[in-house]
Write a structure and sequence with these properties.
Elements: E1 2-6, E2 9-13, E3 28-30, E4 33-36, E5 39-42, E6 47-53, E7 56-60, E8 74-76
Antiparallel strand pairs: 1-2, 3-6, 4-5, 6-7, 7-8
Amino acid sequence: MKEIKIGFKTVQIPRIGHEPDLLAYGKAYRTCDINLTDGFIKCMNNVVKIRQDEKGDFIDLSTIRHNPFRGLGKVYI
């Protein structure tokens, strides 16, 4: 897992592949849950993509249904 901070919260991004530091760049994958400091919010069957722009790598939280952080949009990792 790669953890990123959103305010005081922590979001875990699952790793894929055989390399321990390999993330799913440009590939869609299912996320198991969003790990919050005050508990777990399950986001099963949601597809998240890690994308790149001129600022770097980011995930788009607006694509996750039932996500309290949808309004944040891009979160850089």
